């Protein structure tokens, strides 16, 4: 039986990683193509038309960030970055340049699959859903209401905006910069402390245990994610 | 019962040391002409024919034909011409011989004094240098040149020989060949002209070569050699542990003074000490007042005596004290002296009666010590008297200086006299002559106390005159009606003299004490300055300036560089006197470890005096000092002070060097330790998880028969995951540690919410926190802190991981965070076993692992990384044992002064 699932392109110079990704993703119903260099990758995006690209930052020929930038000039395909723990700045730059999400090597398969799904959700058009449900957390975008276990929680306007932004991009990481830019404006891109204060407040209102948040997850050094 | 043969370690060492040294063979003779040089040349010829490398350093033939003939056979190193006072002298070329490095060199006439400008003052010093370089030396010597026998020879022959050789040279010689011929034969030789040329002979004969003389000298020579053999035998016996008569433990003490008679005492003491195999001490006691009135000649004489004693091997003790006898006896008792040698005093009975005879006192209180009283003869008494009279003469010339210095005392005296007269005249009849004369004493007393002897005498005379003129009948005349007034006049003058002298002395003593005090405090200042300093440069600076200041000269400090060549490190003032030649002198001092330069017997023409900075570890450098006063005869006090300074300096330099070495050694040891720990850790902690991974994986892969059930499979897979995660953590730890160590750690500071960080850390630990109740307490309105959030999260992860590892399953973990004044304090606590109190700070060391009954895996790096990160933030981290068991680790982060300011609402910036 031929797989007719969504197409995923893997760009990574490590043979072993390509191998296991191919095996795992194919088993989950995706159609997988893998290449080893950035150039090949860009070509493949054009030719293969994948629904998602998994891109490793440490490529031999072109810098991963450049691949993203070049790619974004003519394609909106979602990109997930594979990065190593220390490459903080690269990760953020890549995300700000247009990548959608990232996983840090070594990663658990489940994590990657979740992010793949989250990244592709946008495309598959779940935008119309007015009420977003995350286990006990419920967000009504139309009526601008948030309930936890069916109890309404009052949020300030700013708090709501933040939650809304995270919710729309549920499952995907939102960088500090993009959140700040969206909620406060471009000149506030660097003011991480505002986010900290607000996220803290939001968590205290929405989370059962604010110290162990289940919904609003911190991506260290990068941003936040709503699950 | 056999007595234990004790091998004397010193002797053994000495005999071993001799191995590296050159051997000295001395051809000893009773007088000139016995054939020493000839014998030496003969022996050399024999060695030459055996193939040994023999050269002639310097041989005096004195025109004797036979000697000249023998000389032709041997290779000669040409002598070096030295010019002195428009004449050219030929001295032995020491450097050429050293360069040539023969096995044996012949050096004639050991007692010869070198021409000024030579390296050493005496030829025997040259020979010592040759021996130190490992070259064997043959030399000749007459018995009359021996230092200790000098006075005996003088007694015998009536001739005082000036050129002497210290006994030590002979004692250290490996062989003494006595060249002996009967006196008649020697006299015959003399007559035949085979000793001296024709013209000289008669005079020489008459004066020196009387048969009696020659016999006596011969006996001296024979006796000396016999004693030497005796001693050699004893030494041999001791080295080889052969039982024999041991030294008796005698100790000799000789009291010396500035008198030249002391030289005789010293030689007697030396002979006594040698014959009894005893140590000997030379002590000089200076009464504190006495010191002040010594003149140059006396000081020179004293210095010479001290030097003589030192050269002959005495231990010098110098004391100040008023009771000479007491001081002598105290030292004698302390040092277990068995014999004291003291000179019979030249003072008259009266003087002795008044001042107390030192000798009598010593004898009276000597208890068990033998006292040898050596009489001087007329000649010597005369000499010492001359010294005393010189002293008086000098004292009397001194007032000349004073007179030119100040007229103030005399003016004041005159004024006082006038005043006295004016005051007393009106009331003279009331007072009476007696009282008036007493009153006239007052200005005299005043003058004496204030200005000293001479002004006092002048005042006295003036007082007498005034008194006589104005108050003694007949008035206004200088005649004296009543002879009794003459007594008053005499009393005036006596008073003036006595008080004046006392005042003088007192002033001198104060001066002297002040001088002394300055010098001592200079020494103290230097020692205090450099006591705790660890920087070489500062120490050198201190030394140079302190020494230059106190000794009044220009100081240079030379230390060896890496190539062990002497290089100027520090100087006070100018160092323009330091040219090639001076550097050569300094280098010589450095190599030989002996002082040289101006004022010493070696290289005395140098511009400065060079002293080696020696410690037990060897010579550390050289201190050179050029005195500001160019007069050469140095105050022994100054020299002693200088040597004290040098000693201090050497120690300080040595201390710094050793400290540096110790530091390096420590660093090496520490890095060794770490490297070993690291290797051990790497090996173990990487291989262990790998073994479980490979084991499990291969199990699954090779499972052809599908032995494993789904549960088993799941188990194995979990094991593989665990192993891999463990390796991941370990690698992460190593990288973190490496980054911290290499200084590559750059903090990316940003605003952090500790609550957030805790959340991240907890999340990261995921699975391991199941079944572990976790209590997180966050202070409401916790302020944000400026920190590298990711690193803080790493700290929290490590701390949580640690807390989990060292506590039981199911036990609680508590995390708190709160503000304390200007810091943010966070704690992580577990329940379970504690850490031994002594280890509470050690847990943060790299690779430290607690001995725990729970088998804990891990690198021992976790806490060390935490410490590195926290301290890089300027915070602190520490561990405490909980009261109810378990450990709490606390860390603090400094809170920034910056306020966040108002947090704006949304859309403000749009």
From TrEMBL, chain A:
Residues annotated with 4-aspartylphosphate modification: 56
Subcellular location: Cytoplasm
UniProt key word Signal: no
Domain Response regulatory, first and last residues per copy: 7-120
GO terms assigned for molecular function: cis-regulatory region sequence-specific DNA binding; identical protein binding; phosphorelay response regulator activity
Main location: cytoplasm
DNA-binding region ranges: 129-227
Descriptive protein name: Stage 0 sporulation protein A homolog
UniProt source species: Candidatus Desulfosporosinus infrequens
From TrEMBL, chain B:
Keyword Glycoprotein attached: no
Annotated protein name in UniProt: histidine kinase
Gene Ontology terms describing biological process: monoatomic ion transmembrane transport
Domain Histidine kinase: 681-897
Domain of life: Bacteria
Function: Member of the two-component regulatory system KdpD/KdpE involved in the regulation of the kdp operon. KdpD may function as a membrane-associated protein kinase that phosphorylates KdpE in response to environmental signals.
InterPro entries: GAF, GAF-like_dom_sf, HATPase_C_sf, HATPase_dom, His_kinase_dom, HisK_dim/P_dom, HisK_dim/P_sf, Histidine_kinase_KdpD
EC class: transferase
GO molecular function terms noted in the UniProt entry: ATP binding; identical protein binding; phosphorelay sensor kinase activity
Intracellular or extracellular location(s): Membrane
Mode of membrane association: Multi-pass membrane protein
Gene Ontology CC entries for this record: cytoplasm; plasma membrane
Taxonomic classification: Bacteria, Bacillati, Bacillota, Clostridia, Eubacteriales
Enzyme Commission code(s) on record: 2.7.13.3
The keyword Ion transport appears for this protein: yes
Naturally occurring in which organism (per UniProt): Candidatus Desulfosporosinus infrequens
